[in-house]
Automatic annotation (TrEMBL):
InterPro entries per UniProt: McjB-like (IPR053521), McjB_C (IPR032708), NTP_transf_5 (IPR039498)
Pfam families xrefs: NTP_transf_5, Transglut_core3
Top-rank taxon, per record: Bacteria
Protein source organism: Deinococcus cellulosilyticus (strain DSM 18568 / NBRC 106333 / KACC 11606 / 5516J-15)
Domain Microcin J25-processing protein McjB C-terminal intervals: 327-416
Protein known as: Microcin J25-processing protein McjB C-terminal domain-containing protein
Length: 457
């Protein structure tokens, strides 16, 4: 167990040098729970978190009030729900995107009201041929402070198995609570359901593969302090039909027993746990892969068109990569096309087109660069040609003692495309490069200095 995790579990923050918290996304939380003398070094981090939340709060409240006036009362989930209801101040709880759920019948009205307030429609399931099975809208606020993911379902089961997800969602509805956020009407999940569905099941059943964050422990601990007992949690899991999943999750994250294990599961245990939870989830890994393949095949004409288009961008990127250059030098080749309105419908087309084309051209020379760099650069070129001011971002993580690099695409701080063989989400990487039209002006403080990483990293 590392020092940060130990201090977090025992709420012994001051046992560590303040610099260790300054480098984490827990700085604002630790500021609020330490002595005045100790937290002095965390004041800039808390002030930044407070300023960020105030900017988000203003735009989010304006949108939700407009929705309320139209009879739309959203269900808040994940980080923002925890921040508003359970943290002393919302700024303590860092979160990236804001997630909420609406009924499908409300989506068009919600989208139009948001657009009328200046929100950009980054993703629209009715407009874009996305493969998301649980999200209907992706919205960016006028000041770009918020990426809002609007769900129509709480769980992301493949369509052939969505009955299991819908049955569970119906079981959640009687326990949902109305919450008055200083005049804004929203809904929240019940105490146990907040722990089980957006946290435990999402970490266990889908892409995260049981990988955790320290805020997972803090969230569960605050739910415990709010009155959730371990027994009540397990009893609710039994009612929802996911007791095994919850019991396994508690082996990795359990505030009642002061347990937090951030190490990825080894392949043997991961396979074992997947087989154990399959009956509760409603499908096996193999069945899930078959369902995804079937969905993709249903889009064959659409995919072929975009893969053919992507071939040009991938070849262009590969030719540039044959010359050893830093990532910033590579990105300097990619010019943003100035348009009156970015064409966000190109986002998904770029994702599938570049992914398919890069597989077809896997053996085409690209210097020493990894596949993720090729894909990210090609996608960057495609999107900037459509007027989308996307950024290429790279990071590193410790993979069993080895440093592993990864590259992906973001827009206004939100991940647009994770197009690499590595299934680990970008949140597990420490960012060391962020491109920018303005000479990488948005590069993070911990990014590599000097020339930056090369395309081979």
């Amino acid at each position: 167990m590392d020092d940060l995790t130990r201090a977090l579990i025992h709420q012994d923050f001051e046992s560590l040098p303040v610099e260790m918290w300054q480098k984490s996304n827990l700085a604002a939380y630790v500021f609020c729970h330490t002595s005045a003398a100790y937290r002095r070094g965390l004041l800039p981090h808390y002030a930044h978190a407070l300023q960020r939340w105030k900017a988000q709060e203003k735009e989010l409240r304006e949108l939700l009030l407009a929705w309320n006036a139209a009879g739309i009362v959203p269900l808040l989930i994940k980080g923002v729900a925890m921040a508003l209801k359970h943290y002393t101040h919302p700024g303590e709880r860092y979160f990236g995107d804001i997630d909420l759920m609406l009924d499908r019948s409300q989506m068009a009205r919600a989208r139009d009201l948001a657009a009328g307030l200046g929100w950009q429609v980054l993703f629209d399931a009715q407009r874009d041929r996305g493969f998301s099975v649980h999200e209907s809208l992706g919205l960016i606020s006028p000041s770009h402070n918020i990426k809002l993911d609007v769900h129509h379902a709480l769980l992301k089961h493949p369509k052939p198995f969505e009955r299991r997800a819908l049955d569970m969602q119906r079981l959640l509805e009687p326990c949902m609570e109305h919450f008055d956020w200083e005049g804004v009407q929203v809904r929240m999940l019940g105490l146990a359901d907040t722990a089980i569905v957006p946290l435990m099941l999402h970490r266990a059943w889908y892409r995260d593969r049981w990988n955790l964050k320290r805020f997972d422990y803090l969230d569960l601990n605050l739910l415990r302090e709010a009155g959730l007992t371990r027994e009540a949690l397990l009893e609710r899991a039994k009612v929802l039909g996911c007791q095994t999943t919850v019991e396994l999750f508690l082996q990795r994250c359990d505030p009642w027993q002061k347990v937090l294990d951030l190490k990825p599961l080894d392949a043997t245990k991961l396979d074992l746990w997947r087989r154990q939870i399959s009956p509760e989830r409603g499908y096996s890994e193999h069945q899930g892969q078959q369902a995804r393949t079937g969905l993709i095949l249903g889009y064959t004409p659409y995919l072929v068109r975009n893969v053919l288009r992507g071939t040009g961008w991938v070849l262009k990127a590969a030719l540039v990569l044959q010359k050893q250059q830093t990532l910033q030098e590579l990105c300097n080749h990619v010019v943003l096309r100035r348009t009156s309105q970015p064409d966000f419908s190109q986002i998904h087309k770029a994702r599938v087109g570049v992914l398919g084309a890069s597989k077809l051209l896997a053996y085409f020379p690209r210097g020493n660069s990894g596949m993720c760099v090729l894909r990210a650069l090609a996608a960057l070129w495609w999107l900037r040609s459509a007027g989308v001011d996307a950024e290429l971002v790279s990071g590193v993580r410790n993979d069993g003692g080895k440093i592993k690099g990864h590259a992906w695409i973001e827009y206004q701080g939100s991940v647009l495309a994770i197009i690499a063989a590595d299934l680990m989400a970008p949140l597990y990487y420490k960012i060391n490069f962020r491109s920018s039209i303005q000479q990488n002006s948005r590069q993070s403080p911990d990014a590599a200095s000097g020339q930056g990483p090369s395309a081979a990293d």
